[in-house]
Design brief:
The chain is 33% helix and 27% strand. The protein has 94 residues and is an alpha+beta fold. Helix 1 (14-25) packs antiparallel against helix 2. The two termini are 21 Å apart.
Length: 94
């Protein structure tokens, strides 16, 4: 079941930060510089974390946080000054 996740990071190195951002943007919508909304099921999120995202960062220097949002979070979200919460397309082109 698809769930909405809030993913954010603080990466010390420019090269790692850019690489991580590009990887996350493949599956998620950037809503601020280092903050993303990710509509993924838990299995897909775990795969992204273990196989891609966590391989880029250095745990001793960087941090990556993933917050689950409950089913009502999207409807309760208030956005001022930008686009509404990310709505994934019905299809994914790989």
């Amino acid at each position: 079941m698809t769930k909405l996740w809030l993913v954010c990071y603080d990466v010390a190195d420019d090269k790692r930060r850019t690489k991580l951002a590009k990887l996350i943007e493949q599956r998620c919508q950037r809503v601020q510089y280092s903050v993303f909304e990710c509509p993924l099921d838990e299995k897909a999120l775990t795969q992204q974390l273990e196989n891609r995202w966590l391989k880029v960062i250095k745990i001793s220097e960087d941090n990556l946080r993933v917050y689950p949002l409950d089913s009502t979070a999207k409807q309760q979200t208030r956005v001022y000054g930008s686009s509404p919460p990310y709505e994934p397309p019905d299809y994914l082109i790989l």
